[in-house]
Specification:
The chain is built from twelve helices and eight strands. With 268 residues, the protein is α/β, with parallel strands linked by helices. An eight-stranded parallel barrel has the order 1-2-3-4-5-6-7-8, surrounded by five helices. Bound molecules: ligand LLZGTKA7. Belongs to the OMP decarboxylase family. Type 2 subfamily.
Amino acid sequence: MSTYRQRLKEVVAARGNLCVGIDPHANLLSSWGMPLTASGLETYCRTIVDALGETVAVFKPQAAFFEVYGSAGMAVLERVLADIRAAGALSIVDAKRGDIGSTMEAYAEAYLGKDSPLAGDAVTLSPYLGFGSLMPAFERAVAFDKGVYVLARTSNPEGGQVQLALGRGGSVAQEVVDAAKELNTRARTRAIGLVVGGTHGSLGIDVSDFNGSILVPGIGAQGGRMEDLPGLFGAAFDNVLPMVGRGILQAGPDAEALRRRVSTFLAE
Ligand SMILES: O=c1ccn([C@@H]2O[C@H](COP(=O)(O)O)[C@@H](O)[C@H]2O)c(=O)[nH]1
């Protein structure tokens, strides 16, 4: 199998550079006329993948909204991941996992394991317990041609409190960027990506020579704009994967309306 980075490049070249968030907010389910049950959740997700699965490059299901429905919700997540794969798109499971190394082994197996039903093409990780504690996930990503996205500079206004705090050589976020870059250089598969929000006037970190994919949430409902991304990311712009959730989902459930909204974001 090709590496995550190779698959990402291919699908983006064919379908355009956009990741659509699958965020089953209760208010969206209700406005789409779907019940707040695991079955409503499944209809909602399948409506999105049926409408966009063959045109959008990447989907990012947000695990929290599936956990709300317990084991039935997690079973829906498994099926949605299979649907995304069958449609020829890639998936990033937004689970933001991170723990001490021994527990991290289990999270890594769940979300990046070779045959795990909850494994997509990539998963989001939180480095709050130390970048090195995520090593079990990095190892599996390299071994099984998957990707990971480590939170560096998140889109929310509170994130700077921790991420822009000064660490040993610069900000905490910059340490994450530099550590991810170094591991990518060593492993050569470029499996390690970053999450950097598109909501900031300036990033406050230097990602100009980062050598992996950069997932950029915050576009649309959170106020970030596609047209600002080239200026915001500069030399790193080629590595940027913009991500939009509610900004697209609010156009549903009509399939044609969802596709039109995707085209609008891509055109920007
Ligand atoms: O810094 C971050 C990291 C993750 N997210 C997630 O992305 C989507 C955003 O959805 P929108 O509807 O486009 O706002 C959501 O799942 C967040 O948990 C983020 O927003 N910022």
